[in-house]
Each structure stands twice: as structure tokens, then as C-alpha cells.
Amino acid sequence: DGLPEALDGLAAPESVPARPPRPGWWPVAVLAQVAMTLLQVVGGIWLLGQVLGVCAPDLLPPVLLMLAGIAGGP
């Protein structure tokens, strides 16, 4: 008599597991990636400004900014 109910109980989905806790260094890593992404964006805007003639032409600083952002960012 109780077999169908018992099988339904076994087939019922378990509770959704909670997300595992993040390690303590996680916020620092996120902040570092945001900073590296901002370096890429600033370097790209600076480089674009030089290409369009808005800034004085000196390619090395914006390219180095972009490379630093690419090397350390996402």
C-alpha cells in the first residue's frame, strides 16, 4: 500500500544545495580584476585619443597600460 508513496519520496528532488562559501581572498581578487579592467579601458581610451589627434602622440604609455591590464585582468 505505501510503495507508490515511498517511491515518490525517493524520486522527489532534494533541496537545492547552498552555494559554497567564498574564500577570504575572493574580494581582493575581484577588486584586482576590476582595477585591471579599468587599466585596459583607460589605456584604450588614451590610445584612441592619440589616434584621433586629441592627445599628444606618445604610444608607449597607453600601450603599457593596456598590456598591464591584459596581463593581470580577466
Characterization of the model:
The protein is mostly helical. It has a domain at 27-74. The protein is 66% helix and 0% strand. The protein has three helices and no strands. It has helices at residues 3-11, 26-52, 60-72. The longest helix has 27 residues, at 26-52. The chain starts with a helix and ends with a helix. The mean pLDDT is 86.
Largest sheet: none
Shape: rod-shaped
Strand content: under 5%
SS element count, helices: 3
Percent of residues in helices comes to 55-70%
Radius of gyration: 26 Å
Helix and strand composition category: mainly alpha
Distance between the ends:
58 Å
For the residues shown, what is the average pLDDT? 86
- H/E element sequence: HHH
Q: Detail the poorly predicted runs.
A: none
Total beta strand runs = 0
What does this entry show, briefly?
This protein is mostly helical and 74 residues long. It contains three helices and no strands.
List the defining traits of the structure above:
mainly alpha; 74 residues; 66% helix; rod-shaped; single chain
